[in-house]
Amino acid sequence: MRFLTALKTDKGIKRAENQDSLLLMKAETQAGSCVFAAVCDGMGGLKYGEAASSGLILALSDWFTSELPVLLQGGPDSAGIFISWKKCIGRENSRILEFARQLGCQCGTTVSGVLAIGDRYFVLNIGDSRVYLIENGRLRQITHDHTVVQRDIDDGRLTERQAARDRRRNILTRCVGVMDTADCDFFSGELHPGQTFLVCSDGFRHVIDENEMTEWFSADKLDSESDMEARLDLATKEIMNRCETDNISAALVKTAVSAADDKTEELPKLSPAEAYSVFAVTEKTVLTSQRAIDN
User: Fold this and answer.
1) What is the spatial distance between Cα 232 and Cα 185, in angstroms, rounded to a whole number?
2) Could you say which of 12, 19, 32, 243 would form a disulfide bridge with 42 (CB–CB 3.0 to 4.6 Å)?
3) What does the alpha-carbon distance between residue 264 and residue 80 come to, in Å, rounded to a whole number?
4) Which of 293, 286, 261, 260 is nearest to 64 (CA)?
5) Residue 275, phi-psi category: left (phi > 0), alpha (psi -120 to 50), beta (remainder)
6) What domains sit in the chain, N to C, each tagged with a CATH number?
7) What is the pLDDT of residues 231-252, one digit of tens each?
């Protein structure tokens, strides 16, 4: 599979700082091309939210280069990837808690991300950032929000329309860095050419609807990475025109056919040294604030 990608973040029209952090990593591996895109939204109501989001993005960047190569020995395995993600996020949760304890403050962050490799995708989520999949003209939300209003929707106490106007819509029931444990959700599925994954903070989606996201980011509208960047720019301007007050961040990943897609041979099991030797990072983009928790 071949991947086209784009990133965009903006502090928006009201916030003095951008507490969102983004990551885009690409690599050539034993299993083919690989891409990892993630968005972390520092909790705006808590001091040092940007430090929490930056620290987690940097931890995920390190995970991609130091742990993923070994996980791909013999091909991608969902159980191994999910366990490794859980450990990575757990370590960062403890680090943020200790950072906050030393400063006498509280801080936290959401995280949503998608890893695509071979014929599979893998998604992680905690909080209310989201991963969407657009395919065949339809949009599907892969992740499930960890918010008070989503809990009320699940329990039948609120409708989707009521939740959109509820003042509690930004209150999280799970995040990284506030509680002793950070419970993540994990998802996986099949990759096909012509898919678009949208990873975004809640500020990107509050004032636009799913029909607009489908229209703007369907794969047939995204012929190049410059097209994808231009559409993210236009979407961000439209979101600001509609008076969104939060930071606005999104990443796009589009799947396309590559010459290697017809190869179906079983991948050999490599030693750790061999796994690192055939793993080559081809692109790394990290967008964070200046302040991050030391790793």
Assistant:
1) 26
2) 19
3) 21
4) 286
5) alpha
6) 2-138+172-287 (3.60.40.10)
7) 999 999 999 999 999 999 999 9
d(CA 116, CA 129): 18
For 103, list phi and psi in degrees, rounded to 5. Answer: -90, -5
pLDDT of 169: 86
* Structure tokens that stand for 266 in this block: 């079983």
> Residue 38 to residues 19, 29, 146, 149, 262: CA-CA distances in angstroms?
14, 19, 17, 24, 28
| The overall pTM is greater than 0.85 | yes
For residue 158, what are the CA distances in angstroms to 54, 142, 148, 168, 169?
A: 34, 21, 10, 12, 11
| C-alpha radius of gyration, the chain, whole number | 19
